[in-house]
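task queued by scheduler; priority normal; single chain, no ligands, no partner chains; default sampling; output format set to structure tokens
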Amino acid sequence: MKRPALKLSLTLLLLAGCAPMAVVPPQAVDAPAAASASRLDPAMERRIAGIVAGMTLEQKVGQMTQPDVRFITPDEVRQYYIGTVLNGGGAWPEMDKRSTVAEWAAWADAYADAALATDMAVKIPLLWGTDAVHGHNNVSGATIFPHNIGLGAAHDPDLIERIGRATARQVRATGITWAFAPTLAVGGNRRWGRTYESWSSDPALVRVYGEAMVRGLQGELTGEGDVLASAKHYLGDGGTFNGVDQGQTRTTRDDLLGRHGAGYLGALDADVQTVMISYSSWFDTASGQDQGKMHGNRDLIAGVLKGELGFDGLVVSDWNGIEQVAGCAKDRCAQAVNAGIDVFMVPEDWRAFIANTVADVREGRISEARIDDAVTRILRVKMRSGLFDRPADASPLTGRAEALDASELAREAVRKSVVLLKNNNAALPLQSGRKILVVGASADSLSNQTGGWSLTWQGTENANADFATGQTLLTALRQALGADNVVYSADGAGVDVSRFDAVVAVLGETPYAEFNGDVRFPTPVQHSLQHPADLAALQAVSGKGVPVVTVLYSGRPAYANDLINLSDAFVAAFLPGTEGAGLADVLVGGAHDFTGRLSFAWPGSACSTGERSGDVVQFARGYGLSYAGPSTVGRLPLPTTPAACES
């Protein structure tokens, strides 16, 4: 199939084949005119070919190898001709969580210098990748934006592009030039612990947002504040059976490409230069065949992505993702090389990977032509991003702490991404000069407010002081209403509620990231079951004759009918990041109205997942109240919560 025709067919699948799941119909998206926005530069290609021709096999495989900086020294980068490194979640200079931006930049510079100190005829610059998924979230002092689930509710592609630009500046300040973002998952089952990394269950919105974020991150590719983006995780990570992370996506090829491939069409339109492969596998329900792990799927990587869609950048594996391919290990996977992966994230076992891959080539399991193709793509991306012309530390942003600050933009993003689900009797907005009681452990927790992928991998083991910027909602309310007017009790126990004009209950999930965030079938997915202390705090203040405003932090659409019934007003804040002032903006005074609208259906039962035809939906995708259009929400039904959900 010719490439423009394939993209047209995928667009038609997106618009037609995905309709049954949609609560709000996807918006029509014109098919792009070509497979990829980039075009090969003949002079660049000749230059690359000359470099590749002069490289040894060991040097080529070194370029394909990506260790974690915790497991390789700068001198080993030089010795083994390493082409790219990464810092995983929880890796910091000298393992100090509160490292300064200058220390980050110096750390990156040491590795970059080592890559240029090899004995190669042509010195090849280093790429450093980092998971900057909601701002430069691994760095203390960097503004952290709302997670994707909240940004989806904003329905604002321009905002997404501006967040991409700000994130790129943050990343460049630390001397890094590659962001492992955006995640383009079309979230299906809310049991999935990475649901918050998805913008929406609507493939059309994911496509538009994917294009906007890539444009924001990459800019013109060679600018002082530009970084490489990585479209991830290809393909189907948001559709795994029962929402099991790294599980099996059971669907037809048409649905896999049309629904789960939607974001990649947008990313390709924006000329994304790198694509990361998913841990998930695919079971083709039409043929009844198990297609195995995506890391070994040649048809979808080399065939569809690189061939039919014309992607000419580099494909990178996920962290030790190759070991999940049948017959492979952490340090060896000829099938993944042959499938079309170019860069291998082998954080600890990189030495063995180099030796084993060299042996696989020499023994005929991998062709040297495939190796040359991978290295060509790596060098192409490095040249396009300007690394051959200017080192990363030449940017005037390098080491600049002020480049980490995007607080005003994040505050705007918070205002636009929270959704008002209920506001009976005008419980909101809060009025100045009134006495307010704040309850709930999440009210003064930046960890719960930011969620996973915040300073650490899982977002755990963080204190408020570790963030070095931002404010909790409690702090923001005290600033907005006056410290003397705001009293805080974590559990609300023993407080005379009648002394106050209103209560704000701030409830929330505790942080989690991939795998650990899954709620495994058949466990019911109900917030008060997972977090009974939140229910107790709300019960302590509800029904006392004082209006109760509940703010819920969650990384998934949460079944919370019991909590909503105990509240006069209810705000789905998702995971808003460091800028609690954005929440205070919409809660206090009424100067800023609620404009967020759900980008996922909100469940009406503890066993509704969001993807099955029989699911109970409490609030449809697209729902959201505002001060301008008040609406009363009656008492919500409380289905009996089963001990276990049925399939």
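post-processing summary
- Residues 157-173 form the longest helix (17 residues).
- The CA atoms of residues 340 and 640 lie 50 Å apart.
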